[in-house]
Amino acid sequence: MITSYIPVMAKESTDDEDYTQYVDPFVGTDVDYGQQFPGSVVPYGLVKLSPDTYPHTNDDHAGYDYSKNRIAGFSHTRVEGVGGQGAGGDVLITPTYVNYTRRPEASSKAMLYSHDQESATPGYYEVELTPKTGSDENAVDNESLGKIKAEMTSAIRTGFHQYTFPEDGSVSLLVDLNYTYHGTDIRNAVMEIDDSNDDFTAISGRFSGKNVSGHGKYTLYFYLETQQKVSSFKTWNGSRLYDKDSQTGNDLGVILNFDAKSNEPVRIKVSLSTVSSEQAKIDMHNEIPDWDFDQVKADAKDAWNDVLGKIKIENSAQSGSLKKLFYTHLYRMFMTPVNATSTSNTYRATDGKVYEANDYVHYDSWTLWDDFRKYPMIGLVVPDVYKDIIRSLADTMTTGIGTWGIDSQTVPTVRTEHAVALLADGAAKGYIDYENLLPAYQKAKEIADATVNSEVEALGYVPGRVDKTVEFSYDDWAIALLAKQLGKEDDYQKYLKRSFNYLNLYRENAVGDILWPKDANGNWMSADPERYGDNGLYQGTLWQYTWWDSNDVNGLMNAMGGKENALTALSYLFGEQDPNNGKAMLHTNTNEIDLHTPYLFNYAGKPSKTQYWIRQIYTKETWNRYSGTGEYNPPRYEKVYKLDPQGLMETMDDDAGTMASMFVGAAMGLFPLTPGDTTYQIGTPFFEKMTLDVGNGKTFTIEANNVSSDNFYIQSAT
Q1: With contact defined as beta carbons under 8 Å apart, do 86 and 32 qualify?
Q2: Helix 658-668 and helix 607-619: axis angle, to 10°?
């Protein structure tokens, strides 16, 4: 097999292929097999409009569980496939025939549906719901009435709902500001209803939310508009219904009543803004000025084709399922972060102030511990977007940032460790011409010096915590890179020296030296290198954390006794000494700790093993001992990536597209091992030919002659 990576000049594009046909939005939506959602979103959309299944539990991080058979409504925000038990679920809309005399209970909203009456494509979702009839919590399923057809599409800031009811008569849309994934204690909601216009009804207001785990409080503003004027409405504040058109509190909502006809859809639009409800109204009228649902749906499809079409696959030997897996995961890469900039080019920052973003797009919503290694893949596919993401992260670091989301977030956010690694990655690629780089650099130093305190600095490691030691070392290396770019030689020397602290924790092991915890007195601690969470390790084992500092692979291998010892240890990590024993597999596919380790065989002089393990992990069956939360008992021999609602391993969150980006990189045969380093490791491409549009009239073509599922070893490369 010959693999070529060929940059060429592009001809004028005549590509009219519909790449959305290869995307299956239901992959990974069976809750603990990816934590994804099937609803409507456009690339980087602030609005992620999707069904919320009933009953909602803390296990449903993105609101939807393919295994449940009832839908309670459709909400507009979520951080897909990520830990922290989810954030979002805001502004829940439910179509209903139920007559309410008091606040609607969750069970009365929950309507039956089946997957054979549900479909989704990028930017569009539809489902047929069995309506309930009756009053309040005594309402019952009414199969004889027919189905309520619910359709969703969206723009960046606006969700567009279209409901077609089976019979003429009085119907309602419930707008619930109380529903959310985190609980109901901090909504701080405001709701104003404007029924003064003869043609439509409008609602505006705000709400706050957070993660279930209690951090990352965010505040968003909204504006809702109906296509037809409501016949009447009732608001609630707590358990009672009111005729009031203004409410403030934690448990708010409104019942909008319509005179519906079976052949005339009831339509509403909901826009979100970080700035104000007035700005949300402006954004709605700028993004979707009229009520042409099909046009908005077509625009959303076009937006996805613009992104998905950046990579064109030509292949004769592979099955269609592999191509669908590729484009499905490419689709998942471009949902987080979100475009938090208004159509007036403003955004609200974490300091509460409103800023202008006249020459770039401001992005927000961070899950960086999970997904920081995915961003160079985004930069490879859409470099202009990546440049704005880096600048936006500098904005966030300048106005206020914490390890976990702080209480002045403007959109759902989980965590922000390793932000400095992305600043360094951007700088390494030439993205340094923006005003917030220097204050962001100062903030990165402040964070690093608070974590590497005087005790840690003196010891050269964090007592008892291997995981913190290796992560702090990586961030110090990133700061050193920035210092070099900024001409700060003293800082460069200080942080570069500190970046090698992780080397102080390598200890002789039966199979090469691996990381091992020390106490504050310099003594080796008792530890089990195969035990998940040993000595406080965060979501991993000593064997997995041993390889964390990919910024210093040569130093890491020297610490292990040289390249030959490192190769032996890598082989042991992948259970090659006992390939039929699942307990021997010490690498984990289900979490971020050592996802990069197959590519380290390249450094150890065995690229064929990189190629072997990439093909095994991403397209075939392998042993999996470790889950995302501990261990499988017994270990499982199965595929990691599947074209199925159970699309990932059980407990394997997609983590805002992290696992998706791993698949994309594996399929392309290019992997960004180390954010901060501009190089990519060569794996083994899955397709005979892939052409990447890199902008400015240029393409980058990857050819893998005669590649197939079993013919994947690279014989030569140019």
Answers
A1: no
A2: 130
Model confidence pLDDT, tens digit, residues 619-650 = 999 999 999 999 999 999 999 999 999 999 99
Residue 563 identity: K
Q: What is the pLDDT of residue 2?
A: 55
Closest by Cα among 693, 673, 694 to 683? 673
Residue 500 near residue 552, CB atoms below 8 Å: yes
- Percentages of the chain per state (helix, strand, coil), in multiples of 5: 30, 25, 45
Task: Confirm if 661 and 329 have CB atoms less than 8 A apart.
Answer: yes
123's tokens:
């930017």
Encode pLDDT of 194-236 as tens digits.
999 999 999 999 999 998 878 899 999 999 999 999 999 999 9
What is the CA angle 228-234-237, rounded to 5? 135
**SS3 at position 681:** strand
The identity of residue 592, as a single letter, is E
Looking at the DSSP assignment, which residues form a beta bridge with residue 482?
none
Q: Which tokens go with 608?
A: 């064929």
Average pLDDT in the chain = 94
> Is the bond leading into 634 cis (omega within 30 degrees of zero)?
yes
Residue 455: strand, helix, or coil: helix
Q: Who's near 164: CB < 8 A, 6+ residues apart?
A: 148, 149, 151, 262, 263, 264, 265, 266
The length of the chain, given as a count of residues: 718
Nearest alpha-carbon partner for 365 in 39, 38, 44, 29? 44
